[in-house]
Amino acid sequence: MLDLSHLKVLVTGGGGVGVGAGVCEALDQFGATLIINEKESEKAEQAVKKYRNALPVQADITDEAQVKRMFGTIAEKLGPINGLVNNAGVGLTKAVQDIEEWEFDRLYSVNVKGMWLVSKYFVRQLLAHRIPGNIVNVSSVHGFASQPNYSTYASSKAAVEGFTRAIAFELGRYGIRCNAIGPGYVHAEQNFDLIRKWADDPEAWAREFKDDQQALHHFIEPVDCGNTAAFLLSELSRSITGQTIYVDGGKTIMLFNRNYVEPKV
């Protein structure tokens, strides 16, 4: 089994369900020390109870003063850390002509600015201690291809992938790697509210989606994303940097859906 007991990994937005929870579950299983960040301290404190070795840290990642303070707290309790998963993010499903400026600013503030701020202070402490480290950014299939009403979200995830490639090149000489994962539809309760915007039965919609819109006909679980993040944080991926791995059941390789190209059986 993969041994990540040497890693101390900060996971932003790790206190909820979905991908963040899957990342924490996998890293905990492989023995890493977790630092779970949430904007609300109570949420972080509740999350760490599920894991063997985890520290809660509160910070609004869009506020530089709070991010700086968070890294100070981590340093006091754990010393330098060597892993970061930029998981925190928000979504928006709205026609481009109807998006309000505050909605655009909020989404980019979390999805892009927050990722940059946390990465900035993570890299600073790596360089100060002259140690290598790894960053995994959570993107989305929307960073590769999208659909109507996702322009703001999709463009923010494209920015995540561009940032990933750029800093991977910039920081490689210091032994710092940066990669991204791009989840497709992840079968988690948090996605059902979104699905209800266009489907009365989220479970039925999800079953049809996996059978028609994915090359692989099983649900993508949060821990599938977590296992991919664990691989990218480990020495098994020591020669991989600047890449995005799509954890999407093959969604992004399909030119047409199955109903279009395959006879019913």
UniProtKB/TrEMBL annotation:
Coiled coil: none annotated. SUPFAM superfamilies: NAD(P)-binding Rossmann-fold domains. The keyword Oxidoreductase applies. Keywords: NAD, Oxidoreductase. Residues 7-208 form the Ketoreductase domain. GO terms for molecular function: oxidoreductase activity. Belongs to the short-chain dehydrogenases/reductases (SDR) family. This is Ketoreductase domain-containing protein.
